[in-house]
Write a sequence for this structure.
């Protein structure tokens, strides 16, 4: 080999290695930066008070995160509650009932849904969901509201995470051998019985991982939710109350965070919570996937 | 035994309803945005920058945000490519020998996949304060690049992984080095797939609002150098929508149409390319 | 003796291809009928017509009739689930359901409405015994079925199929995924089963057919070339193509 190409080879290798190392270092830096930036918050506040306190008055130095944590948890869980059954039923339909052509037609639709920017979802939420909640859904329950509520946030968020959950669920369902359905149906089970008792059981870890994956996406979603959820720092008492999730807190207040002492630390702490929780969810999702793959191998052997 | 057949039929209808509702929601989203936004969309809006009194409903357009968004996304995608493509190649060429290492890298990237862009934004903002930097196009580009990196690497990785190992082996057998194999064989063979992955990352970059909110700032001018702040489409929509003046809100909806159209074009382009890629790929 | 199943003028088209051509066939009760032929000849498709598993695929067109107990299997009004209960299927490789050994055998009975614990227990024991698996698994009935060896899994699938009390057993190359030892024991299993059931077995292994067949149907390119009692078929084939196949000139 010519010496020049040897040098070039070495350089290219260094470039690849360097890139990989950089990619792996960034999250460590982020974690370190967020931790370092949020420590001032704990100088004269107990972590319990911060996480469980519901008093949010930055000017007076009181930072109770409970309303935001509650807002995030509620809106995420509600969105999942709406999205999961829809995705599950659709995934079953597309993989077990519909013609193959229907599945092929659905793929671009799912892709487009996944690609729509979150601000556009927010615009749609303001155009359609907020009026729907204030004019139709809330009156049905005898409530009057502006429509900028926890429910609106959850509905918009549900639509946003559907393509992600649905995509994985379809993949999971498709990876299960058709012969398993046949085995069950050959015993006289209907398709639905086979799906319910055999396929779902086999697919359970994969499906769980899809849901957890959706959870982590929903938890960090910012702009779309911010635009429709009302942003009032109080623990919501009903779905028709406004809420204030963690990402909205950060996005709404970055401008003034330098003018109030320890406000920046509080916002960085909010980011840290998001970061850690999303990592944990992703870890859980990986765990389910690994179990699913092991299970697949275990029975096929 | 009639109950189970009835159950079967009822479930089938419920499932059809679920699938149909997803299709309808997509239609509804696109339709409602178009109906509300198209009437206010004019040539002026996409060809002019804001003029005096723009935010009170007077003349001007959102060209600043369109150009700003294109600069930002192009810059971020380019930067992410410079790091992302070699990193993906590293996983598939060098780490592939030690399968554990490749698995560890993929695992790590999967963990990062869902980290919300607002976390990147907040982190970058605090770094900028630390370094005494002001909001700028460059800061936005770096932040967004970091945010789309895991997405891009995993997408390219999926494409590279679909190449049969036989192909690289054939290349080694001809005396090619690993680097030559990586760039001349793997990249060449998977080019349309890689472009699709890049386009998808570009789509993520142009649609993201949370990371640029802190870092890129907002301005009525078209930036002429990377150290100036820049307007972006998502933020243009977001800010104008919170205005009490109806004309300004109208423009926000029109801007949403522009952003949606850009995204639709990108996603159709990506689909078309990946379709072509499926056809052209050498199969073993 | 009356045949348990009689197939008349059966034609199967699948996405434009003519897979089965004018099949006429009678299946005797309590005998092993072997469908013999090179792979891809349509013998598995024929088997899947009998329990209408062909319904699971798009683009399938069926014509003709398959009479079973005076009813046409291919009739649109046929209760397919009941039909499949009456025809137990043993497939090429075992696909244990993702549940315990006990639940695998009880699955079909539960599907068909049996809820009583004591009955289920008794029957699981009975059919595991019938598939010669009881002694090996009686202490581990609650373990996942996936932990059994592949030969045991296949016998579990037989027990699972027997538990819904079929009249006909359809076996699609039931030994093709097994080692020679397990294959032999599965073959012996079928010889025992023919005392109580009609067995239709698909195979492409000549020696297997010689060992266990009572009646042989040779299928080639979607057509029945020759059918005869086993002895006659192997000692004195009438068709030229049968002779060539028996001499191993096809594969």
């Amino acid at each position: 080999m010519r010496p020049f190409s040897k040098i070039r080879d070495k350089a290219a290798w260094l470039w690849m290695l360097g890139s990989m190392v950089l990619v792996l270092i960034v999250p460590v830096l982020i974690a370190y930066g967020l931790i370092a930036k949020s420590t001032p918050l704990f100088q004269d506040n107990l972590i319990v008070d911060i996480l469980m306190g519901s008093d949010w008055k930055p000017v007076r130095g009181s930072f109770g995160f409970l309303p935001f944590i509650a807002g995030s948890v509620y809106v995420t869980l509600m969105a999942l509650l709406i999205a999961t059954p829809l995705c599950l039923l659709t995934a079953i339909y597309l993989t077990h009932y519909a013609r193959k052509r229907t599945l092929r037609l659905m793929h671009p639709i799912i892709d487009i849904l996944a690609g729509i920017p979150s601000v556009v979802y927010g615009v749609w939420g303001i155009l359609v969901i907020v009026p729907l909640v204030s004019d139709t859904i809330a009156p049905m329950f005898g409530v009057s509201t502006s429509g900028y509520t926890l429910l609106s946030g959850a509905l918009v968020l549900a639509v946003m995470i559907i393509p992600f959950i649905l995509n994985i669920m379809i993949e999971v369902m498709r990876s299960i051998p058709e012969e398993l359905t046949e085995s069950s149906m050959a015993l006289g089970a209907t398709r639905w019985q086979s799906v319910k008792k055999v396929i779902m059981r086999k697919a359970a870890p994969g499906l769980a991982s899809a849901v957890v994956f959706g959870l982590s996406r929903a938890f960090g979603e910012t702009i779309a939710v911010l635009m429709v959820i009302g942003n009032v720092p109080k623990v919501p008492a009903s779905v028709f109350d406004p809420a204030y999730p963690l990402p909205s807190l950060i996005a709404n207040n970055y401008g003034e965070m330098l003018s109030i002492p320890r406000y920046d630390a509080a916002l960085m702490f909010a980011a840290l919570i998001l970061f850690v929780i999303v990592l944990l969810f992703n870890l859980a999702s990986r765990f389910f996937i690994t179990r699913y793959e092991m299970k697949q191998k275990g029975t096929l052997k | 035994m009639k109950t189970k057949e009835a159950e079967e039929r009822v479930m089938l209808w419920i499932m059809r309803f679920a699938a149909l509702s997803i299709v309808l929601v997509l239609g509804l989203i696109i339709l409602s945005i178009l109906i509300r936004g198209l009437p206010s969309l004019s040539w002026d809006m996409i060809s002019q920058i804001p003029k005096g009194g723009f935010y009170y409903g007077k003349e001007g357009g959102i060209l600043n945000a369109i150009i700003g968004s294109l600069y930002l996304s192009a810059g971020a995608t380019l930067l992410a490519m410079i790091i992302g493509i070699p990193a993906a190649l590293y996983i598939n060429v060098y780490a592939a020998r030690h399968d554990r290492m490749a698995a560890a890298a993929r695992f790590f990237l999967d963990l990062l996949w869902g980290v919300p862009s607002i976390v990147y934004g907040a982190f970058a903002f605090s770094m900028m304060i630390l370094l005494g930097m002001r909001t700028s196009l460059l800061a936005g580009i770096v932040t967004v690049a970091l945010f789309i990196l895991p997405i891009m690497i995993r997408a390219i990785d999926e494409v590279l992984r679909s190449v049969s190992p036989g192909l690289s082996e054939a290349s080694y057998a001809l005396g090619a080095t690993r680097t030559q194999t990586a760039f001349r064989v793997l990249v060449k063979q998977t080019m349309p797939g890689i472009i699709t992955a890049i386009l998808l990352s570009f789509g993520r970059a142009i649609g993201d609002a949370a990371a640029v909110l802190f870092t890129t700032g907002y301005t009525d001018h078209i930036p002429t150098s990377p150290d100036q702040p820049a307007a972006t489409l998502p933020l243009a929509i977001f800010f104008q929508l919170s205005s009490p003046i109806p004309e300004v809100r109208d423009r926000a909806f029109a801007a949403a149409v522009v952003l949606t159209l850009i995204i639709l074009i990108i996603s159709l382009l990506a689909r078309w390319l990946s379709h072509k890629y499926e056809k052209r790929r050498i199969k073993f | 003796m009356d045949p348990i199943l009689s197939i008349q003028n059966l034609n199967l088209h699948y996405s434009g291809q003519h897979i089965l051509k004018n099949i006429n066939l009678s299946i005797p009760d309590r005998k092993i009928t072997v469908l013999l032929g090179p792979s891809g000849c349509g013998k598995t498709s024929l088997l899947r017509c009998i329990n209408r598993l062909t319904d699971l695929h798009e683009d399938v067109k069926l014509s003709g009739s398959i009479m079973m107990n005076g009813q046409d299997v291919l009739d649109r009004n046929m209760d397919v689930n009941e039909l499949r209960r009456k025809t137990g299927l043993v497939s090429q490789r075992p696909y244990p359901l993702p549940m315990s050994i006990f639940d695998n055998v009880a699955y079909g009975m539960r599907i068909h409405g049996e809820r009583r614990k004591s009955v289920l227990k008794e029957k699981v024991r009975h059919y595991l015994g019938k598939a010669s698996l009881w002694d090996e698994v009686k202490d581990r009935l609650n373990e996942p079925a996936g932990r059994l060896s592949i030969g045991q899994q296949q016998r579990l699938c037989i027990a699972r199929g027997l538990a819904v009390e079929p009249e006909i057993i359809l076996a699609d190359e039931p030994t093709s995924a097994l080692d020679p030892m397990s294959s032999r024991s599965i073959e012996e299993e079928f010889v025992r089963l023919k005392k109580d059931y009609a067995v239709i077995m698909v195979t492409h292994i000549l020696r297997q057919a010689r060992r266990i067949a009572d009646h042989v149907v040779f299928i080639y390119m979607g057509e029945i070339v020759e059918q005869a009692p086993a002895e006659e078929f192997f000692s004195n084939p009438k068709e030229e193509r049968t002779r060539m196949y028996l001499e191993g000139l096809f594969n």
User: Anything to note?
Assistant: Chain B has two domains: 1-40, 44-280. Chain B touches chain C through three residues (CB under 8 Å). The radius of gyration of chain B is 23 Å. Chain B has a mean pLDDT of 87.
